[in-house]
Design goal:
The structure holds three protein chains of three kinds. By secondary structure, chain A is mostly helical. Chain A has helices spanning 4-14, 18-25, 35-58, 65-78, 82-109, 118-140, 145-160, 164-171, 179-210, 223-246, 271-279, 282-302, 313-336. In chain C, helix 21 (281-311) packs parallel to helix 23. Classes of the chains: A mainly alpha, B alpha+beta, C mainly alpha.
């Protein structure tokens, strides 16, 4: 229809069309119907949406202290559909973190970390952490009171984590909110983290292929996965749009470095970390968080099984249960301690 | 849901659905492109929160033929209201060695006191050592007041 | 201690000594304060006392005498004729050499003699105000001292001591309501309630020492001293230079004398009708100008409402609020320009005010509408999403049942 074939042939006579499709196929993402793969597809769709909305936002956003607020206000209030694009970007980021986290849990439940699955695991966990960093850096960009002061508190948490905290604070140029910090946040958020995300996904897919899960890169994708992706994409779009419309993030008054409002909350995914820091002291809590991160990243190396297989039921439920309980408990503590 | 339809009907159904799908998807495509285009068109009003617009003053206090120098810290500029009622805003910094230009009302030109470089009202170099034309700034009048965009 | 009088004097002497020890300029041997203690206390606070003057400099007498006959001898003056007070004060205050170190003007007495008070005093009226009535005889304080009766905020009260006294004013055929009128006026409220010392008090318009009612033909000169732009516009207008045969029009004809209220556009109907009759072009123009002002005010009020509605959502509209003040300024300008009675000039400003207000209103309501329409947009999009999914679903069934291979 519309002479689809004719156009493709016209291009193909001049340029090997597989060079273009190879970009997608080269990723070699698995397209099966397993739950993990479905989640993975949703994540990719959401990521593409984030990139599109983020790119559109970047056309107006200006990363300097007062101009950041004015340009965000411009986007939200004065441009056509800017409000929707902004809300979708914010809610998309929250959803992305949740999907990544659930996906990692799935990795655990299916035992994909076993055998030669270390890289699959590490890239997976890395993706969760990267998405959280993305949300954190993006959090400051609107430069309203909520953004500014929640970032001040976030930086306190980062300061508490040894080693990794030092690296992060070096990357973002210190722990005081200055115009230089804002620019670095902006660069990290728009360039650095998307690049790392796609790199991690690429490696993740390559590792999966090695383990036998991936799609073959030499045959074309069929219509089925494309249609599946279409349906899922539409649903994701609808859900994010609904969340953004019904529960919009509030954009309050401009950041005032000399007035701290009384109702500032940390981003929700930092509540457990904050709870840990509040329960133990900041120092001990910082080390605890650091160790948790290390364990999280490196525990597949401790596993000696040869084949990827789901771990025993008791282990699975035990670990899952412990993680969920810990997250909820510390999350609650973090929340009520003014998180 | 199995039905014993003959292949030609099946093919017709498939191609109908195919066209329908293409129609639906192209509507999405048009919608998305439309939204993006509408979004990317700069809004009719930029917030006057002093980010880029400089308020020069009321238009009716600016005579025709008058030129005013605004000593803005980062972008000093000249605003000129020509006899033909055009508003021109030009950078006042000479492109040669960054001296501040002076307005020659008789000849309608901007002259540099350092080496005599001369610019016309379009910013082009007429005589002298300046290598590049002057930067122009966009002006607009809103509510009878002249604003200059010093982005 | 042979007589009770001597005993009393001695006691008072001791008391007076103690009292006088607290004084600055009064010599330790100044016994005036023994009997006239309250005057002495008042005098001590005055600026004359600071300049080392004593009782003797005005009253004469012998300050060292302890007995009354001697104390009240030696050229003692009592000022039974109030005319003498003015002459006494002028003795120093009209002397250029004496006043030179202080830089005070020396024309007060001369001005006073031209004033209504001075004229009547010369004719023998002993009831009119002289220097000591306004400046207080003994406790003379500088104008800037808030306790002085001639301080800005105290002047209405000081003048009112006579000019609000009905009995006294009836004797001269003057109204006694002027002070109350002034208190209710714009100027009175500014001075007495908001403590704005730039607001005119009685003396600013009527003159301090040369106090006289500004006569017809002089009134607008007074107003124009502060309301300069308005005066300039008024002079440009038809009332500014009326031909000699017509009645002269001045500010007070529309705005009043003492009870000057905040002007509204209704003045254009009430005051024009005082002179212009029926359907004259003048009346029609006044009505037209009033209409323009009303329309501009309404547009600005609507824009203000729009801003408030947006703020309630909340939408940040501070830039619109500051743009609104541009419109408001145009309205203020229009009101000032009204004094030219030129339809074009007024229309110019009201047009700007209205166009800004209209733009603000339309833009803000557009944004509010878009904001409020988001649920409908959501529903429409979901509708379309479900349609698409249905089509895709059917297509998938139709096309992929026929094919045998799917990619895994």
């Amino acid at each position: 229809m519309f002479g689809w074939r004719k156009w493709i042939d016209w291009v193909d006579h001049r340029l090997d069309r597989r060079a273009i499709t190879a970009l997608i196929r080269g990723f070699g993402l698995p397209a099966t119907d397993r739950r993990s793969a479905v989640l993975g597809m949703l994540i990719i769709i959401l990521l593409i949406m984030q990139i599109v909305t983020g790119l559109l936002l970047a056309f107006y956003y200006h990363p300097a202290p007062r101009a950041a607020y004015a340009s965000t206000l411009l986007i939200i209030r004065d441009t056509h559909f800017g409000w929707y694009i902004h809300q979708m970007h914010v809610w998309g980021s929250h959803l992305l973190i949740v999907l990544f986290a659930v996906h990692v849990l799935g990795l655990f439940v299916y035992g994909a970390y076993r055998g030669r699955g270390e890289i699959v695991w590490i890239t997976g966990v890395g993706l969760v952490l990267l998405s959280m960093q993305g949300a954190l850096t993006g959090n400051l960009l609107p430069w309203d009171q909520q953004a500014y002061w929640s970032t001040v508190r976030t930086l306190e948490i980062i300061r508490a984590i040894p080693l990794w905290g030092t690296v992060l604070s070096f990357l973002v140029g210190g722990l005081a909110i200055t115009p230089a910090l804002l620019i670095r946040f902006y660069v990290v958020h728009t360039i650095f983290i998307p690049f790392l995300l796609w790199a991690c996904i690429y490696l993740h897919a390559a590792a999966l292929r090695r383990l036998g899960y991936g799609a073959r890169t030499d045959t074309p994708y069929g219509t089925m996965p494309a249609l599946q992706a279409l349906i899922r994409g539409l649903l994701v779009f609808g859900i994010v749009l609904t969340l953004g419309t019904l529960f919009p993030t509030r954009f309050i008054e401009e950041a005032d470095p000399f007035t701290t409002p009384s109702d500032i909350r940390l981003p929700w995914f930092l509540w457990p970390a904050y709870g840990v820091l509040e329960t133990l002291t900041h120092r001990i809590g910082g080390w605890v968080l650091f160790l948790v991160l290390l364990v999280l990243l490196l525990f597949p190396f401790a596993d000696r099984t040869r084949q990827p297989q789901p771990p025993g039921k008791s282990v699975t439920w035990g670990v899952l249960g412990a993680v969920v309980i810990a997250l909820i408990t510390f999350g609650y503590i973090g929340y009520i301690r003014g998180g | 849901m199995t039905r014993n339809t003959s292949p030609p009907e099946q093919i017709k159904r498939r191609s109908f659905l195919q066209r329908l799908l293409q129609l639906v998807m192209s509507l999405w495509g048009v919608g998305i492109i439309g939204v993006i285009t509408a979004y990317l068109r700069p809004p009719r009003t930029l917030p006057l929160m002093g980010v880029t617009d400089f308020r020069v003053g009321p238009l009716d206090q600016f005579k025709k033929g008058e030129a005013r120098f605004i000593p803005h810290a980062r972008h000093p500029f000249w605003v000129i209201r020509t006899e033909r009622d055009q508003l021109i805003a030009l950078s006042a910094v000479c492109t040669h060695l960054r001296c501040i230009l002076r307005w020659d009302a008789d000849r309608g030109e901007l002259v540099c006191p350092c080496h005599g470089g001369t610019f016309d009202l379009n910013g082009n170099v007429l005589i002298g050592p300046p290598p590049r034309p002057l930067r122009t700034f966009e002006t607009h009048v809103r509510g009878g007041v002249i604003y200059v965009r010093l982005a | 201690m042979r007589t009770p009088g001597m005993l009393t004097c001695t006691v008072l002497l001791i008391v007076g000594q103690v009292a006088s020890l607290r004084g600055q300029a009064i010599e330790t041997h100044n016994f005036c304060a023994v009997c006239h203690s309250e005057h002495a206390v008042a005098f001590r606070e005055s600026i004359h006392a600071q300049e080392q003057m004593t009782c003797v400099d005005c009253h004469g007498g012998n300050p060292r005498a302890r007995a009354i006959p001697q104390a009240h001898g030696n050229g003692f003056r009592t000022f039974a004729h109030r005319k003498d007070i003015a002459e006494l004060c002028a003795g120093c205050h009209a002397d250029p050499i004496k006043m030179k170190p202080y830089g005070i003007p020396i024309d007060q007495y001369a001005l006073y003699l031209t004033s209504a008070h001075g004229q009547r005093l010369l004719q023998g009226d002993n009831r009119v105000a002289v220097c000591s009535d306004c400046h207080d005889a003994h406790r003379v304080l500088p104008v800037r001292d808030a306790r002085s009766p001639v301080h800005f905020e105290n002047i209405p009260n000081t003048c009112g001591r006579c000019h609000a006294d009905e009995t006294l004013m009836r004797m001269y055929g003057l109204p006694a309501t002027v002070v109350d009128d002034y208190r209710d006026s714009v100027h009175g409220r500014a001075l007495l309630e908001r403590h704005n010392h730039r607001a005119p008090d009685c003396a600013r318009c009527h003159g301090t020492h040369g106090a006289a009612p500004p006569g017809a033909g002089n009134a607008e000169k007074v107003c124009g001293q502060c309301h300069t732009r308005t005066m300039a516009f008024f002079r440009e207008g038809p009332h500014g230079h009326t031909p000699a045969k017509r009645t002269h029009v001045a500010c007070v004809d529309c705005h009043g004398y003492h009870r000057i209220e905040p002007p509204t556009h209704d003045l254009l109907t009430t005051s024009c009708g005082q002179c212009h009759t029926g359907d004259s072009p003048a009346l029609r123009r006044g009505r037209r100008i009033r209409q323009l002002l009303i329309e501009a005010e309404a547009a600005i009020a609507r824009a203000q409402q729009a801003i408030a509605a947006a703020r309630a959502i909340p939408l940040d509209v501070r830039d619109y609020a500051s743009w609104w003040t541009d419109a408001w300024t145009h309205l203020v300008e229009a009101r000032i320009v009204t004094h030219t009675l030129s339809l074009d000039m007024v229309a110019d400003h009201t047009r700007s005010a209205r166009s800004i207000a209209r733009e603000i209103q339309s833009e803000i309501y557009r944004k509010i509408r878009i904001f409020r329409s988001r649920y409908i947009i959501l529903i429409i999009i979901w509708f379309y999403i479900l349609i698409t999914i249905t089509v895709v679903h059917h297509y998938r069934q139709a096309c992929c049942r026929a094919t045998t291979t799917d990619s895994a």
